[in-house]
Amino acid sequence: MSKVQKTESFDTVSLAKPKYGKKGAELKNNDNSKSKEGRKKSALRENVEAILVAIVLALFIRTFVVQAFKIPSGSMLNTLQIGDHILVNKFIYGVRVPFSGTVVIPVSEPERGDIVVFKFPEDPKKDFIKRVVAVAGDKVEIRNKKVFVNGDLQDFEQAIHLDPQVQSSGSRRDNMSPTTVPKDSIFVMGDNRDYSYDSRFWGFVDQKALKGKAFMIYWSWNKENDGSPFDYVRWERIFKLLE
């Protein structure tokens, strides 16, 4: 009788073993789930970090290195045409504090002939692009469409005149009395001299308003094209360096 009881007791203990084994398997499966979940979280964090780094780099490049702009008007014809997409060197005139425009690391000064992008003095929310005609300390004068700087005729080959008429002396478009460019400022004009709203009308550009120097056309789209679909793109202008 005692042997049977021992056997039953032994069998009872033996039958309980699979339960422990099952619990062990459940624990192992839970560990695998946690491991997979951890890998998913790790991959998600890596992707988020990569995106944030890319955004920071893009903002840094756009703020301090190079920025793209699109030409919406014809004030710089024929140098720049409506639909040209250009790249602007942001650091050539120095590394600037964002928003204030204060130069913290000087690099170079704007020179006559540079094509510059700047905040429009009458509305800083707008960006304008013109050519530098005179710099700080220069005396600029316009007589019958001809531009003189420090008494010397400035013959910019890029400048064009589409209106043959010379406006009266009361108009600053074709005639302007001698004016000295103030310190830390520049005098700018559009290459399309008869159809450009520039320093002749609203004054000088403070160098703090400068955004950079345009140096290349990377894309050009002619939306007024009425010929072949292939002519919408001005292929000959792509990657053209500006001067």
User: How helical, in percent, are the residues?
Assistant: 25-40%
Tell me the radius of gyration: 35 Å
Tell me the strand percentage band.
25-35%
Cα shape: globular
| Span between termini | 112 Å
**Succession of helices and strands:** HEEEEEEEEEEEHEEE
The helix/strand class is alpha+beta
Summarize the structure.
The chain is 28% helix and 29% strand.
Task: Give me some keywords for this one.
eight-stranded antiparallel sheet; alpha+beta; single chain; 243 residues; disordered N terminus
Can you tell me about this structure?
The protein is α+β, with helices and mostly antiparallel strands and 243 residues long. Helices cover 28% and strands 29% of the residues. The chain has two helices and 14 strands; from the N terminus they run H-E-E-E-E-E-E-E-E-E-E-E-H-E-E-E. Strands 1, 2, 5, 6, 11, 12, 13 and 14 form an eight-stranded antiparallel sheet that branches. Strands 9-8-7-10 form a four-stranded antiparallel sheet, with no helix packed on it. Strands 3-4 form a two-stranded antiparallel ribbon. Strand 7 and strand 8 form a beta hairpin. The N and C termini lie far apart (112 Å).
